[in-house]
Amino acid sequence: MKMKLRIATLFALLLTAAPVTVSAQREATPVDTLALTPPMGWNSWNQFEWEVSDSLIREIADAMVANGMRDAGYRYIIIDDYWVGGRDTKNRLFPDPVRFPNGMKALADYVHGKGLKLGIYSDAAELTCAGVTGSLGFEEIDAQTFADWGIDYLKYDYCHAPTDRTTAFTRYKKMGDALKATGKPIVYAICEWGGRSPWLWARAARGHLWRTTYDSRDGWRSGDGFLTGIMDIFDTQEGLEPYAGPGGWNDPDLLMVGLYGKGKSSSPDERFKGCTDEEYKTHFALWCMLAAPLIVNNDLRDMSDFTRELLTNRHLIAVDQDSLGRQGYTFMRSGDLQYLRKELKDGVAICVFNRSDAPASFVFDPVRDADILYPATVTNAWTGRVSKKAAVRGTLPAHGCEVYIYRRK
Ligand code: GLA
Questions:
Q1: 215 lines ligand 1 (CB under 6 A)
Q2: How far is the CA of 129 from the centre of ligand 1 (A)?
Q3: Ligand 1 mean position, distance from CA 77 (Å)
Q4: Average pLDDT, rounded, for the chain
Q5: Within this chain, do residues 288 and 381 fall inside the same structural domain, yes or no?
Q6: In this structure, which residue's CA is closest to atom 9 in ligand 1?
Q7: pLDDT tens-place string over residues 184-236
Q8: Rounded Cα gap, residues 326 and 345, in angstroms
Q9: What is the dihedral of CA 244, 247, 251, 257, to 10 degrees?
Q10: Distance from the CA of 215 to the center of ligand 1, in angstroms?
Q11: Do 355 and 273 fall into the same domain?
């Protein structure tokens, strides 16, 4: 069962990578030190949509501190679409005055006072996806406005914009340059949904992360269209691993953990009524193996112990945030079992994932199956149990997974 990258995948990879040396893209010196590991935080989108407000963001910041997520590494609180009120007489954006009566600067001050950072959203066109004012033609003034408010992160969307790659690059670079010109450390999240292979050019546009897919939804699989289940997204990440690394990350979209189908975007569609706890565990573990940005979007004010413990699992967060910055990849398959491997600074993380709708048993020998020759310890990411016995075996529930962290010392 020893199997490596399929030839077709490798061929596709070489084709898509043609304009850029693959390893050069990952190993290029980061333009700055803002995202040396994948950004972690919270975003308002799936759960709240148009209900973003000053009071909500303050309550989310309070909750992120109280529930231990800040101390686990989550930092950015990102206000997605629907916050804009319009432009004033000097063409400066202002927030919706009813929902953000204190203005953005006061809100940023509050969030900073909690040891957290504030993110905001705009679009590389005249309108955002929700139809409020976007930034096209006002990039410099908007970047400066965000900087003046103390904004730390910009998610920049691509609704209502031309579909070609050249225009996308030009528009994203314009905002990237404008953010850079403010002299403020603002993480730049490119969100054109992967259609124009942003992994090839997003760093050149000064991006720190770039969406690789359409919007994720709170369901295991959808199989079609713009609304995308967790497995649909996961399967499209294969082959993108050469492009991720310190300073720039593939972004397979938000974590659905803890939504349980309550999110607004999910609710109208029968396929997106939420996942089981086992599926949320696998979702979180796979995103950590992918070195994905860990950006949740559930209601942090109302979380079960299960959700909180999963989102603060320190073993998995350490895998995601490992300073080597490698994205994991599938190195072996056996029936419905899929094995992923992520290189770590002082070891290797292995994820054994059962894709099947029925339980499945497995045996994994690190020497035989993955050439991991001298592991000193192996840690089970779910139980935290550390052992010196390298080979592992077990039974995985349907859609379940185990993650083993092999450390050299
Ligand atoms: C697009 C983005 C989403 C979200 C919405 C907001 O669909 O991909 O992540 O930001 O717009 O309208």
A1: yes
A2: 6
A3: 16
A4: 91
A5: no
A6: 215
A7: 999 999 999 999 999 999 999 999 999 999 999 899 988 655 568 999 999 99
A8: 9
A9: 110
A10: 7
A11: no
